[in-house]
User: What shape does this take?
Amino acid sequence: MILDSITLRNFGVYGGEQYADLAPVSRQKPIVLFGGMNGGGKTTLLDAIQLALYGTKARCAGRGKLSYRDYLRAMIHRGVPATDGAAIELEFRRMVEGETWHHRLVRSWRETGKEVTDTVEVFTNLSLDTDLSEHWEEFIEGYIPSGIAHLFFFDAEQIKDLAEGEHAAEILGTAIHTLLGLDLVDQLETDLIVLERRKRTEAKSIEEVQQVDEAKQEFTRAQQLLDEAQQTRGELGNDVGRLCKELAEVELRFRREGGNLFLVRGELESKRIQLIAELSRQELTLRELAAGAAPLLLIPRLLEEAESLALQDQETRRANLVGEILTDRDEALLKKLTNAGVPVVYATLIGTLQAEDRDQRQSRTGEVILKGADDDLANNFRHLRATVLPEARKAIQQQLGSLAGLQELLTSLDTELARVPAEEAIAGLQAELEQLRQRQHQHQVTLTAHDDKIQLLVRQLAEADRRYRRVLGEGVEGGLAREHVERLLQHSARMRDTLKKFRVAAIRKHTARLERLILESFGQLLRKSSLVTRLAVDPSTFRLELTGGDGQPLAFERLSAGERQLLATSILWGLAKASGRPLPTIIDTPLGRLDSSHRRHLLERYFPVASHQVILLSTDEEIDETSLKHLKRFVGREYQLMFNETSQSTQIKEGYFWNYEPPT
Assistant: This one.
């Protein structure tokens, strides 16, 4: 089946006549991409396709608790009289024994008096097909049963329900029953139970019949109360879902307006005060370093020259000391020579030689420059240049680096504080957010209490059913009629037991293929074969049982949120494959709450191969400009749902968000 086009006439937010060509342009480009902001008509478009096909059985997100007629009335565009009505026209084609058949389905309705009447017209190969028009519901149930429509037409909420594991078994069970035709078996079992109760009633005395009637009325009341409670629970669940969606949108607006920064403004200001205090302490430490030897780092050449002068003065002082010692020695030596009677001429010659030696030594030294300097001055200069100043330089560099880091943090903090909105600017959103959170909490509490009530009603219904069965089973004895009834009841009971065994056997026989298809789909999406090595479906409860790479059972909750959503998508994908029906896939808000890595998995590994025709309904944040680049080569047609504030209606225009060019 291929959906060729859709035409909406005054349907929901779509004013006037809006048309979109849905046919894929080629096998390589199966995707038709619709972009629209929240409230722009994406979900309405999905509802339109399901409503056109299934009428009263359509699972429309916008229907809520409305009856079918009230829903049709509500979906007539507000800009036109209800008597003008609305219509959905869906063109599609399918293969019948190798031949292509073209169909045009038109579902229209309008208000006539206090009633809303709808009509269905089907044109086959351009001609009105009266037989198909009259029996459209039977035809579509045989071609695409409504019980498996959710495998091909679904949204992020269905993925969320599957990913959270709450309704996975229910969805699996419904789909498997429909795929295997077991709904007929269920109906047969129900008919047998009704037959047994009627026959037991026929075989009772007046008193027994009265007891049976009372037990039946009790059972009926319990069933009615349970049905009403479950319906109310569904409505509450829808309310909670809508509140969650509304809360998510307000939280997003709150973050965009800087609300998160506003909430932590006090922490940011406190942190800024701490940073400024730390900066002051670090600057004080730097000043203390500057008050020591650090300024001498500015005159390294002068220090080197001073050290050289100190060494030179040290040598001069040593030479002068040696000269004084030699003078004293020479004088003592001449005196000894004279006393010893050495001739004067020799003593004079020796004195002359000594004087020349002293003069020569004295000539090699200069004058002391640094008067009164300590003899250790040169060593002090050397220690200063080799040890003290390098350590000071290192300490200053470390301190400057620490100051730079603190200053960078302070600048970043000032930037964040500058982005904090004023209290009056964010107060409205904050109040709205708090109100929504309180409403959500109250609804959740009510929902939990209602779940407890449903459990109690289920137990009461089971007790009423046991009593009803017990009353029906008592007193059937005597008489040919009663013997006949007894035989019939025995055969019926054996038949129901056989049906139960048949149901389990049929499911067990086909679940192996279904498990393989789901596991293959999951592996294709995730490409982590070691994460889940085996997947099994319990034929009685339809619960999924996973086996990890270590061969041990893997709890559903141990998967990450993204992995659970990919597994949920794989379940729908595997079930769709198992159906064997070549049908289009339509996905509303396709990327939901996935992170960037798991989004890319769907973009590259699921959407292009999900079906021969894939229709995606997305916001600009789900399939953004980057995602569109990855998906572009698989997209054949692009549309944008443009909501006009003036006319309060949506129009379908060609081109996605960044590819859309408004008419000049």
